[in-house]
Predict the 3D structure of the following.
Amino acid sequence: MEQELQLVERARAGDTEAFAMIYEQVYQDMYRFALYILKDHHDAQDVVSDTVADAFAAMGKLRRSEAFRGWIFKILTNKCKRKLKEYVDRPGELTEDMPEQTGRRGMDEHAAVRSLFFSLAEEERIIIAMHLFGGYSSREMASMLHMNENTIRSKESRALKKMAQSYWD
């Protein structure tokens, strides 16, 4: 973690090599997150690339080095939301790399869960995404988001309950 903070500091000062090293550390988490949300390999790669380009351009505006992961995931979340809006106007197609669905009901449930996920507050989405898609522990998330571990767990629990309650209503 200390090494990452040093890299972020260097990147904030304009060191492109440091930014590239940070990118290598967060790429897999970002890609998994985008792929889960978008369910399209190419679109996931595109939004991650766009996110990295925007983050690189705005790196000097990052206020606290410790907030880097939360900050870049916020950018990624917004890019995924914009991409999902594009899907509304695009006719759907089934591809080989899409996971098998159990008929129309499975597709409807998947869409409902995604919709519920995006109905959560941004902070709740980030916490759930970091835990479920990024594999971060509550301790790691607390450190990155500058929150208490118990607060992270409480917010995640409440968000998941909200989603479940909305799903069954």
